[in-house]
Amino acid sequence: MISNTLKITVRTKATTTVNPSTQRVVNQLSALSASRKQPKLIKLSHEDLIKHNTIQNAWKSFTRKQETKRYQQLQQQYESIHNAMDTLKAISPSLYQMANKSDENNWYPLNMRVPTDYPANMPWVYNHKNQGKA
Predict the structure, then answer these.
(1) Exposed/middle/buried for 26, CB within 10 Å: 0-12, 13-18, 19+?
(2) How many CB atoms lie within 10 A of CB 89?
(3) What is the pTM of this model?
(4) Is there a contact between 60 and 68 (Cβ–Cβ < 8 Å)?
(5) Closest CA to 133 of 106, 105, 107
(6) What's the burial of 43, exposed, middle or buried (CB within 10 Å: 0-12/13-18/19+)?
(7) Per-residue confidence in pLDDT tens, the chain, 134 aa
């Protein structure tokens, strides 16, 4: 008797026909917006909240120290390069000019594209020649 009174209903997906290109755009936009979704707020007790904030502050302090150390290392490298170039300028101005010579012809053309997972709007040009300064 009980089995007669209970009905099991199964939900099925709605059968709507959408243009495949429209569906692809919707899928791409939903994938992009997924990274912007906010996580749920954690409901913590007062003690756990204090622990959480302590850990977050310790992590901020740790990363700040790492960034400061990296910045100081880069600053020392820059000073070393600058001193080496000043020494080179004092010793041999011709070598200094050769070291600072700009190589405009050796730059990768900005209008060339690297192959990606998705097809580009413009096809790849295998026999590309720079149209700019020649």
Answers:
(1) exposed
(2) 14
(3) 0.44
(4) no
(5) 105
(6) exposed
(7) 455 555 566 666 666 677 888 888 887 777 666 666 677 777 889 999 999 999 999 999 999 999 999 999 999 999 999 999 999 999 999 999 998 887 666 666 656 666 677 776 777 667 767 666 54
